[in-house]
Amino acid sequence: MSIDTLLSIFDNLEKLHKSLLRIANDKAACIKDGDLDGMNQLLKDEQAHLAAIVQLEQDRQQAVIAYLEGHGCPLPNNPTMTTIIEATPEPDKKQLEEAKDRLLHVIHELKWQNDLNQKLTYQSLQFVNLSLDMVRPRPESATYSKTEISGQKETKDLPTFDSQA
Questions:
Q1: Which residue has the higher pLDDT, 82 or 140?
Q2: Which has more pLDDT, 50 or 88?
Q3: How many helices (H) and strands (E) does the chain have?
Q4: 13 CB-near residues (< 8 Å, 6+ apart)
Q5: What angle do CA 122, 125, 128 make, to 5 degrees?
Q6: Mean of the pLDDT values across residues 109-138?
Q7: What are phi and psi of 21, to 5 degrees?
Q8: What's the pTM?
Q9: I need a labelling partner for 20 at 20 to 30 A (CA). Which of 4, 74, 104, 163 fits?
Q10: Neighbours of 4 (CB within 10 A)
Q11: What's the chain's average pLDDT?
Q12: Which of 46, 41, 61, 38 is nearest to 110 (CA)?
């Protein structure tokens, strides 16, 4: 297994994460505009991207295992990018480190954008709840009023009933 296969997988992972970042930016616009149909489509696209990333991640793990076995290195339970970088000779190590840094940068941006989208969604829900509270009728108080506590309850609205009749 050559280092080019790993670099190719890392580049594909970076492209998919950049595409996810574009979707996350579009989701922010849909949240601001209240575009539910657009949001539904973006969620479907996001699910497709996530499935592709999961598949690429499995391919990456297999490629790392094959690379490590090919070079007689010990196999960890969960091989990471750092594991492969440490086991790689110097000329290829720099390329792998650069690919790792690019991927981590995109993942950091994606994480930040998703956090922003979560906050925007929460604020939108707060606005909807506030709007609904303004439109809903207020229930009558379940506590006693001041006149009821002092014993001066008005009786003109109450029907009269003659119990001796």
A1: 82
A2: 50
A3: 5, 0
A4: 53, 56, 57, 60, 103
A5: 155
A6: 88
A7: -65, -40
A8: 0.74
A9: 4
A10: 10
A11: 85
A12: 46
